[in-house]
Amino acid sequence: MAVCIAVIAKENYPLYIRSVPTQNELKFHYTVHTSLDVVEEKISAAGKAMADQRELYLGLLYPTEDYKVYGYVTNSKVKFVIVVDSSNTSLRDNEIRSMFRKLHNSFTDVMCNPFYNPGDPVQSKVFEGMVSGMMVQVS
Amino acid sequence: MAQCVQSVQEFIQDSFVPMVAVLCSEDAEKVTRKNNLNFAELLRPFCRLTSEGHIRDPNNQVQPVKNLRISVNNVCTRPAPATGSLSPAQRRLLGEVVSSIQPPEGVTANIITAGDHDLSFNATTPWFEAYRESFLQSMPASDHEFLNHYLACLLVVSSSEAVPVEQFLKLSQEQHRIQHSGDYTNPRWFIPNTLKYYVLLHDTSQGDEQRADAVYEDMKQRYGSQGCYLLKINSRTSPTGADEQIPDPWSQYLHKNNLLSQVSAGEEMNLCYLMGFADEMPDSMQSHPLQLDCPPSGGLDSLGVLPPGGPTAARAAALAAAGTHGDCLTLNDHDHIRQFLQEFTFRGLLPHIEKNIRQLNDQLVSRKGLSRSLFSATKKWFGGGKAPEKSIAELKSTSGLLYPPEAPELQIRKMADLCFLVQHYELAYSCYHTAKKDFLSDQALLYAAGALEMAAVSAFLQAGAPRPYPAHYMDTAIQTYRDGCKNMVLAERCALLSAEVLKSQGKYSDAATLLIKMTSEDSDLRSALLLEQAAHCFINMRNPMVRKFAFHMILAGHRFSKAGQKRHALRCYCQAMQVYRARGWSLAEDHINFTIGRQSFTLRQPDNAVEAFRHILTNDSQQTATQQGAFLREYLYVYKSVSAESEASLPKLPLPCIHAAATRVYFGHERRLAEGEKQAATNVSLDQEYDQEQAVMWCQLEEQAVASAHRGVVPAAFQPSQCCLNSQTDNLRTPLAVVEEPIIVEVTFQNPLKVSLLLSDLSLQWSFTPRDLSSPQQGDLPSDEASGEPITNDKVGSLVQLYITLTAQSSQPLVVRGQQDLEIRGPRLNSTKEDKTSVSHGQDQRLHPLITPPMPLMEVFFLQFPTALLCGEITKAYVEFCNVSGVALRGLRVASTHPHFFTFGGVGGTSSSSSSAASTPLSPTSAEVCSAYHTLATPPGDPHHHLHPGHPPPPVYLVSSPVEGLVRGKAVAVEIPLEGGVLRPGQSAQLPLWLRGPDQEGVHEINFLFYYESAEKGGRISHRVLRHNVFICASRSLSVCATACPSSVPSADHRGRDAEDGDHLNDGMLVFVDVENVNMSEAGVREFHIIQVSSCSRQWRLHKCINPYKDKDCKLTSRERAKLCFRAARCKPLKGNHRRIACTPFLIPLLRQIVSSTTPCADFFFRCCPSDPVKKEGRAGGLSHPSSRTTGGHWTWGGGPIEAVVRTCNELDLNIIVLWKAYVVEDNKQLILEGQLHVTLQTVGKEAFSLPQKEEAQEMVLLKFKPDLPPPVIQPSVEQLSTLIKTNLHYPETYSHPFVHERLCVVPVTLTMSNCALAEVEVLIDLRHKTISPDSTEVHGTFTWLGQTQYRRRLRPQEVAPLPLRACFLHAGVYNLSTPRVFAKFTTPTRKEEEEGGVAVETSQQAASPALIIITSQA
After folding, report:
1. Which of A132, B117, B763, B1170 has fewest C-beta within 10 Å?
2. Gene Ontology cellular component (chain A) (predicted)?
């Protein structure tokens, strides 16, 4: 399961970041921020012609020594980043994909909330609960 | 990777150059020492050859050698450090090199716009290039490659030597010993027979030139003309004149070398002493100042503070001590040296190399296997084939393999190196390639890696070769060096070369990966530099990767700081900051800011440090409390050291946040709540929240007061006075403060942190500008300090600026002192278009008050002021006005939201207690005995009059003019009666204050506004006000309901007087007063007593009480109801608005009569119904004007006169005042409360209530868009017309008649008709019985009227006329006599009737009540 899940706004500021070992929060922030470069590269590589049918799931952005960073970009350019422990080999690409889909659905629900102002940090409890379900359970 | 000064080719070429050793005799050393240089240093600037050389390859092809550089070094015999890592000294040296070069200041940095980021950073990284150069120079020679082995040796001997040739021999032997004895592992020599080049150094200033020439000739013969050289230097005898400008080409080389030598000197010294080689040591090293001054670099990781200039300054000092170089050399000498080097290279070195290449080639070709491999290799390359390579995994198994120096594999390598040095890259490549294959097959890892590296480099350098750069060779080489051989130094060199090559090919991504891979734990400096280069690679990519750049910059900064390179670390963090700043990545931003703060602090840039820390602490941080605590501690520490440095002015603290807009400013003393029994006026205080409605209300009250002070007109310059300024008040005006009165400033602080912040020693500082600059107060100013919060001004002028000085403290005992400016920005303007489009703010003058000359200051106290009252209850309180200032005040007024709530006693001195205004009030215990009403003792003879209701007491009249202002229907401030109208300084005045409970139950907020002016005119402040508000809880007492109906009987007491007029007039009115005890509280009020009912009217007065209780007390316990009946008589109307108050004492046993006309009863009455007269006048149309009566029915005005008359008949203007007493039990004591209720009777027959009816309150005012139409003439209704005439039958109640004797019984009956109207009425009386309805067929109940059946009469206004009638009865029985029908009509037709033909229609009048007569039969 994920060790860090982040939602980044179109303008590349964080809407939501949650990481499991809280003492490493700063590190995950840096990791997620840096991964945006790769996300941008991948989006621009997809080309403008293909923008319509672009696959939202970007796949593995880059592996670091300890973590694997996966990316997903919605059509409104909101980015989802999931960081997974490298040691966790049981996770398949499909599972990551379904995690992103769940995340996307949940985020859409947040956006549908008439009291949510787009661009504000996500503070939904439902969203939080869904994310918690996808995170590594710390004993 | 950053841009470099050199091109890649140049860089690689310069990295690998032919090495030449120097052996110098002592005398020769002395000659060069004159120039402050040793021989190798002397040559260094000229080591790059400007002209082109040529070399023949083994195939006799001429190969050009361009731009060759050679490296000349002293022979140094210290052992090489262990391969694989740099010695600590070398590391330190590299550190020095890097830290010595800082980015140039003031140079405009490169600006790159990537996405939405604008980054400015240094495009070049000279510190990195310097590091690289030093690093490559300090590479130890190793066995597996020959590139930095010495190719030749210069033997230098001075011409002043006694026998130079011998010296040459000695040196030659020395060289031979070093190379071949095997004592020394270092230096290493390229080829066994090293080229020896003999140089005779001649000092032209000293030596004999001919002798030198002779020796040279001798040498030429001995060593051949190509193996020796005569170098003449030191032509200058005198020291350089100031006018002569000789370029100093050494400075740029020695600059770097100073550091280099310092390190090597240290090592050399140790070594030389050990090995007894003191003469080898250059003496300049011993005296080098840096050796001692070298800053301790061991504690680089600590937070130690570097000296301000850093190493640069120290180095400059060293340079100055060393003096200039080449003092004795002229430009000619420079040329000589250059010529010498050219000669040596082209005549000596290149042929030597050429010869060796040829020799090696021959050797190799002679070896069979080799030639084959060589050829096959070339063939393979040109054929595009690829040699199979063994995997690294296999190579790893054996790494310790060493070849003997003469091994054939090494010969190939040697040849390849030679070719490489003379720029024959094609041949070099093929040789390297061959060697690589051999080494690989032998599993010699180190050798193979070296060959791979060089093969790749030479492949790259082949100009115009179609061969692609074999990057994988490099990767393999790096991996092998690092993992297989654990040789980080070589791996690093390899990576540096490869990265540079990749960069030149635009493969930034690969270069970055390569560089990042090379970072490791063993060397922070290297890691930092490589990370920084990697970051530059990211930013230089086609799609710049800004975030990666920033992230790697941070990593680099971290490593720099670990390596002690604080400046570089700070620079890196600052560059990274540009990416993270204000983009919501607050954790990262905080981290960077924190690091920047720390680094800046250690670099003695405290301002930057404070700035960076401020960012962490002010933005709403997501950090945990502990983290914030750490930040705060750090910040306070930094701050403290900063503030310690600058003593002059306190620096600004960012914490706590001041909410400037929420600042409240209060002008005036803090209010006193109470003083003994006295209760102070609430006034305005900082405790109160600002309420817009309240503010408007107070403003209106003030306006009223001002208007009344200015004869009803509010002056144009009127501004409501504001005592307490906050964000919602009007702050555009400069507030006015009075001299010597305090100004209280309330400042709102906020601690944005999660950790607590302890503030102490807060003080408000202010500066002051006197208005009159010529005044003597100028000297004391402009800045004063006041401790404590209230500041008192004793000067006239304006307050300019406020500061807050405070001491902040974290939980740790770390205390700092700072200040914050208190500046209030006005509200954002949003009225004009410019304001809307731009962000502009208005002015806020809250903190800039103008201090004005002294003004009076009044305090108001209340005594015995109640909190709960019954509705209508009247009680007495005292109010005291104190002038606490030094200025007299006058014009005291009060305006109130409830003007009918209070009245002041002591107006006419009628109240005994108010006769002396300043007298102390009676004690509360005696107050309860004291009645509110002034009573008049009735004359002793009168009481028995009261016993007979028929004899009313002499009525007491008051002809009073109601308070002028109240009549206008608008509340107006009441002037407070003061003795002389002025309150002197220090004086106080006490007045009784009567209060009357509001008519409606519930809690009432009552606001008073006291207004006063200064007795002296011309102040800046026209007036001052004092506010007071109280809450009164009113509970229900009595409910009075009154009705009036006209009486048909002429009033008895008027009969006599009216008789004089010759007429009987009907002007009586019956007034019924229903009083009900509606008090709900059962505990408190026991019973109510009605004491007196008074009337007030222009035309009416109550003059008789018809008391159903006779002489009984009118007591009302809970929910009881009493009905009182009064007779009202019309009296002569009074002129103007004057009204008459008549008292009808009701409570008979009370021997005293209350004078209703005196204070406070009348006051309250007039205040309570201020709007009545207006209403009345509007409706009655002035009908009650005296002229209407005197003209006697001649109606002159144009409206419908008759209608008006009719209406008047139904209207009456009568106010009834009910005075009562309530017996209340409270705390086991009986109290008597008094009160009064008012009822306004307006319409005859309609009920009027003392309590305002709810329906009225809900009345809605319709919005009207059109001007009102003239009201239509109201037609008198049938109902109204039917009450014109009142009839009464007078007859004996029982009548006995002897029916036996006489069959007919005739009874005389008088019908009294009274005209209620004020006009002449024609009355028709019809005595005929009505057409008998079917149900009343009862014949025996009938009687007949005798005589005329119809009468017609004219009745003058209010005339009472009797009409004698006779009724005839046939049987005994009970009869209803009220059968006559009465019709009436006005003699003048009403307008409607006029319209309908001018015939007045008679209206049936209301029948009188049944008049029963009993006829009995007499026996």
Report:
1. A132
2. perinuclear region of cytoplasm
Select the residue of B545, B585, B587 nearest A37 (Cβ to Cβ).
Answer: B545
* Angstrom distance (rounded) from CA B341 to CA B706: 107
Q: Is A44 on the interface with B (CB under 8 A)?
A: yes
pLDDT in tens, B672-721: 666 667 777 777 766 677 777 888 888 888 888 888 877 777 777 777 77
Cα four-point dihedral sign A42, A44, A45, A47: positive
Tell me what ipTM this predicted complex has. Answer: 0.87
Return the amino acid letter for B46. Answer: F
Are B547 and A13 within 8 A, CB to CB?
Answer: no
Whether the link from the prior residue into B939 is cis, omega within 30° of 0, is no
pLDDT tens by residue, B987-1041: 888 888 888 888 777 888 888 888 888 877 766 777 888 888 888 888 878 888 8
Q: Quick check: B630 contacting A, CB < 8 Å?
A: no
- Amino acid identity of residue A51, one-letter, is A
Distance of residue B514 Cα from the nearest chain A Cα, in angstroms:
15
Q: Does B591 reach chain A within 8 Å, measured CB to CB? A: yes
Question: Any chain A CB within 8 A of the CB of B661?
Answer: no
How many Cα atoms are found within 13 Å in the side-chain-facing hemisphere of B373? 20
Give the three-class secondary structure for B752: coil
A65 touches chain B (CB under 8 A): no
Which of B119, B508, B548, B592 is best to mutate for the A interface (most A CBs within 10 A)? B548
Minimum-distance CB partner of A29 among B115, B545, B588: B588
Query: Of A9, A11, A37, which is closest to B548 when you measure between CB atoms?
Result: A37
Q: Which two tokens stand for residue B154?
A: 């210069």
Q: Is the pLDDT of residue B290 over 60?
A: no
Residue of A nearest to B115 (CA): A40
Tokens representing B713 are: 């007109």
Per-residue b or e along B385-419, where b marks 16 or more CB atoms closer than 10 Å to that residue's CB: eeeeeeebeebeeeeeeebeeeeebbbbbbbbbbb
Q: pLDDT tens digits for B732-743?
A: 777 777 777 777
Kindly determine whether residue A29 and residue B543, on different chains, have CB atoms separated by under 8 Å: no
Q: Distance between CA B1379 and CA B1336 in Å, rounded?
A: 13
Name every chain A residue with its beta carbon within 8 A of the beta carbon of B543. Answer: 40-41, 44
Cα-based angle B420, B422, B427 (whole degrees, multiple of 5): 50
User: Best mutation site among B547, B580, B590, B593 for testing chain A: the one with the most A CBs within 10 Å?
Assistant: B547
Taking only the tens place, the pLDDT of each residue in B1323-1377 is 888 877 665 555 544 545 677 888 887 888 888 777 778 888 888 888 888 888 7
Is B498 within 8 Å of B97 (Cβ atoms)?
A: no
Find chain A residues with C-beta within 8 A of B550's C-beta: 33-34
Residue range B244-280, pLDDT digits in tens: 556 666 766 665 555 445 444 444 444 333 333 333 3
The alpha-carbon gap from A13 to the nearest alpha carbon of chain B, in Å, equals: 5
Q: Nearest CB to A14: which of B545, B551, B585?
A: B585
**Average pLDDT of chain B to the nearest whole number:** 69
Pairing of strands B150-158, B195-203: parallel
Is A43 within 8 Å of chain B by CB?
A: no
- Quote the CA–CA distance of B733 and B50 in Å, as a whole number: 82
Give ∠ CA B1217-B1219-B1225 in degrees, rounded to 5.
150
Chain centre distance of CA B1195: 75
DSSP result, B878-916: EEEEEE-SSS-EEEEEEEES-GGGEEES-SSS-SSTTSS
**Residue A38, C-beta contacts closer than 8 angstroms, at least 6 positions apart:** A61, A62, A69, A71, B545
